[in-house]
Amino acid sequence: MTSCSKSPKKLSKIEGKQIPINTNYSEPDSINNYIKPYRNRINNVLDSTLAYATHKISKQDGTHNTSAGNLMADIIYLQANPIFKSRTKKNIDFVLLNHGGIRSIISKGPVTARTAYEVMPFENTVVVAELNGKSILDLIQYLINSKRAHPLSGAQVILDKNNQLKTLNIQGKPFNPNRTYFVATSNYLVNGGDNMGFFKDGISITETDYKIRNAIIDYFKKVDTLSPKVDNRYYKTK
């Protein structure tokens, strides 16, 4: 009896070419017709007017605080505090977000769910960190050193002419270094994003599972008009 064996196959050559995707390609009618009702439904939901902005809302219209930053931080406080309180019986003391997290202006005129996606395209959620007095001072020093208008709500920071902390009020009361404070922020920042390392010393961390973008949309649905201003929540004296 004899047998024969086949030689193992070996890959000898791989060829490829780049296929550019451009306007020369058109959607096949079969695919376009299939997705059209879904696309129309999504566009209808995203583009339905929820509120009205009386003026352009930007993160560039102030030195220490901005209209967009103030709006974002105030929204998080108003929308997330009831959730946090229902779970912990505590209140959020103040909110700190990051200037870079605001990705678009809000133009004067109709405001929609699409607007919220443009302002906050990320899947970040609201997280509440409990910080002691030292960590709060580290947070404020970070705010001063960054020289950026990071969104803030629930606290007032006043600097002297030399950029040193002059006054810190939280919920209208002078800062107490001997107590802890509950700071609402994003999961990105609480994990050290934007070098906000002070959150790593948090005594407790509460994940609300509430997306910041959803909080914005929920707020838009509740109000008729958006008219945030640059104010005195964070400023430097002359």
Structural key phrases:
alpha/beta, five-stranded mixed beta sheet, 12 strands, 22% strand
Please characterize this protein's 3D structure.
By secondary structure, the chain is an alpha/beta fold. The chain has helices spanning 29-47, 67-88, 113-119, 133-146, 187-190, 212-222, and strands spanning 49-53, 94-96, 109-112, 125-131, 152-153, 155-159, 165-170, 173-174, 181-186, 204-211, 225-226, 234-236. The strands form 3 sheets. It has a 5-stranded mixed β-sheet with strand order 5-2-9-4-10. The protein has a 4-stranded mixed β-sheet with strand order 8-7-6-12, with helices on one face. A 3-stranded mixed β-sheet has the order 3-1-11. The protein starts with 28 loop residues before the first helix and ends with a strand. The mean pLDDT is 94.
- The assigned structural class equals alpha/beta
Largest beta-sheet details: 5 strands, mixed
Strand residue percentage: 15-25%
Strand arrangement in the largest pleated sheet: 5-2-9-4-10
Averaged pLDDT: 94
Topology diagram in text:
Layout: H1 29-47, E1 49-53, H2 67-88, E2 94-96, E3 109-112, H3 113-119, E4 125-131, H4 133-146, E5 152-153, E6 155-159, E7 165-170, E8 173-174, E9 181-186, H5 187-190, E10 204-211, H6 212-222, E11 225-226, E12 234-236
Parallel strand pairs: 1-11, 2-9, 6-12
Antiparallel strand pairs: 1-3, 2-5, 4-9, 4-10, 6-7, 7-8
